[in-house]
Amino acid sequence: MILWGMVLLFAVMMSVPFLVPHTGLLALFGILPLLCMERIATILQKKRIWIYHYTAFVLWNTFTTFWVCNATVGGGIFAILANSLQMSLVFGLFRLSKKKFSGTLPYIFLMFTWIAWERFYFDAEISWPWLVLGNSFARTTWAIQWYEITGALGGSLWVWLCNLSIFGILVSLSDGRWSYWNGKAKIASMAGLTLLFSAPIIISGIIGKRYQDSMTLSEDNLEVMIIQPNIDPYNKFQAMTQAQQNGIFLSQTEKALKYRKRDSTAGTLLVLAPETFTNDIKCGDWERSRTWKGFTEFLKDYPGVNILFGASSYDYIESAERPTATARQLGDGLWYESHNSALITDGTARTEIFHKSKLVVGVEHTPYPEIFCRLDDMLGGVMGRCVGQDEVSLLHVNGDSENIPLGCAVCYESVYGEYFTEYIRKGARAMTIITNDAWWGNTPGYRQHLSYASLRAIETRRAIARCANTGISAIISPSGEILQPTPWWEPATIINSIPLRDGQTFYVRHGDITGRVSTFLFILLLLALAVRFITRR
Description:
Elements: H1 2-19, H2 27-30, H3 32-43, H4 50-65, H5 68-71, H6 73-97, H7 105-123, H8 147-150, H9 152-175, H10 183-208, E1 221-228, H11 242-263, E2 269-272, E3 278-282, H12 290-299, E4 305-318, E5 328-331, E6 334-346, E7 351-355, H13 369-378, E8 395-398, E9 403-410, H14 417-425, E10 430-435, H15 444-460, E11 464-468, E12 474-476, E13 482-483, E14 492-499, H16 506-510, H17 513-534
């Protein structure tokens, strides 16, 4: 029973940081029960130990991401079981390494293997990096201001180093080796452990002081208006027409614009609408869209005001045969490809579009389309086939004296740290996120998603204006502080200014060094392990 108790304790300790605000530091101890379980099971010569660690990962994934089932039961169960399987395979490889490596080397191998897997997961065709260990500090941002140097995988490294250090001392105590250490060795080990825990927090405090007033540090600011229309995503195209939805949005916007004119001088303003707000956009042929025409007509009365909104958009292709694996047929010789897009326009009808690239597997994206699109056709076309851009591009706010470059991460894209930095490298002076988190209901899902925006703000030191369909919309400062969060499932409007910043953080300039170094060391150790299995000695 003690083994199962440790399995449960691991799942609870690692879930709490993702579910409860300000508990991220618990992750620095959270893996200990799993490591202790494996050691005890090995000493007791238990069989099929994989059952214990796979169950531990299933419980952790279930406790933290059960809400996916609210949108798709099958997809949620698959995500939990498949993600747990990958974690279990990493742990199984560690157990395999213990047959050929001795001492602390298997645990070092485990650490680098895990982080290398996390980095690979960001770019995999089937990608669900929600539970990256570094994400556990998303609501404990005061401790991780140094993410501007390492990114979230630096947090994963911190988690592993702390857990393995404590575990090493516990093993020394249990084996009786601790009593053979002299006083200096004991003091040095405890001082090193204390430094390992405290140094990142102290460094975070020093770095964070530079950003205490991060919303007012910049001389240049952009006024933003975030409109949360609160439309049920499951009924938005059944219960009401697009014209009715446009009316709700424009009514909120007009009311807020009148308040703004009384409260401040009119000037450049960015108005945000949520992801997939409309589904009537034909790429490059904006005149066909009633939403686009309604917005541009409305904006003629408001010079300097820009609207950035999400849309399901389409490219139509004339071809005798299927032009691409992702294309769907409309009729004889007519096909279409779909996108999850962000558009920006103003009263002059100037329009730019960006297509979401990091797509949700199954719902938006069919992995390995050359293979699975054919299978999907046999099943009646149940999987999404959105097509993204090959690389990031920026949208521009038409300002009084210049066009202001912005990045727009569409929903799931805000989970990908290194991808997010591409907007900054392209020249984005501030960031926006448009999303529609209501698919998951009133669960931890939308709160976790919001918190990950804080990580992106710290990594890039860019302010973020986040617009959600039904909550939570907010302003995120460059220090990761969440400002003016809106309530769940209520219409809401936010008006504020965000700083426009130049310059790049170390993480933006150099990318994920932690992940690259970990991958390199994992490959070296894996090769060493393979050689030891091939040779007799």
